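A reminder from the course coordinator: this example appears on the midterm review sheet, so study it carefully.

Given structure:
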C-alpha cells in the first residue's frame, strides 16, 4: 500500500512538474535567457572589438595601457568597471531602440485600425437613400 502511495505521489509530482515546464511563461523565459546570453556575447564583442579600438584607444595609449580591463590604480581595476558601464549603456541603448521600434509599429497598427475603410451601404439602402433624396428634391420644387 505504501509503495502504491509512493508511486502516486511520484506520478503526481512528475505531472505537476510537466505542467509547470509546459507553461508558456517558463518556455518564453528560457528562450529569453538563451537569446539574452547570445546578445550579451554580441555586445561584449561590439565593445571589445569595435568601440574600444575606435573610441578608447587614444585614451588607452595616453594611459600607456593596451587593454581597458588593465586600467588600474593601486590595485583598483577601474578599467573593468568602465567596461561594464560601457556594456550596460550599449545594452540599454539597443533595448531602448528595440522597444521604441515596437511601440512605433504598434501605434501605426492602431492608427490603421482606427481608420477603418468606409463601409458602403448595401444596394437596398443606397436605393432607399436615392429615393429619399429624389423625394426631397421634388418637394422643394
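Designed residues:
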Amino acid at each position: 500500500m505504501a509503495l502504491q502511495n509512493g508511486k502516486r505521489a511520484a506520478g503526481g509530482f512528475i505531472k505537476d512538474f510537466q505542467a509547470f515546464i509546459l507553461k508558456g511563461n517558463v518556455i518564453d523565459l528560457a528562450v529569453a535567457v538563451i537569446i539574452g546570453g547570445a546578445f550579451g556575447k554580441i555586445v561584449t564583442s561590439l565593445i571589445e572589438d569595435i568601440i574600444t579600438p575606435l573610441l578608447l584607444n587614444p585614451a588607452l595609449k595616453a594611459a600607456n595601457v593596451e587593454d581597458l580591463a588593465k586600467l588600474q590604480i593601486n590595485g583598483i581595476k577601474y578599467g573593468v568597471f568602465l567596461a561594464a558601464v560601457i556594456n550596460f549603456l550599449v545594452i540599454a541603448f539597443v533595448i531602448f531602440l528595440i522597444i521604441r521600434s515596437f511601440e512605433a509599429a504598434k501605434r501605426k497598427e492602431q492608427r490603421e485600425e482606427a481608420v477603418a475603410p468606409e463601409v458602403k451601404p448595401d444596394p437596398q439602402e443606397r436605393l432607399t437613400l436615392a429615393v429619399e433624396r429624389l423625394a426631397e428634391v421634388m418637394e422643394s420644387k
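The helical segments are 2-21, 24-62, 78-114, 123-140. The longest helix spans residues 24-62.
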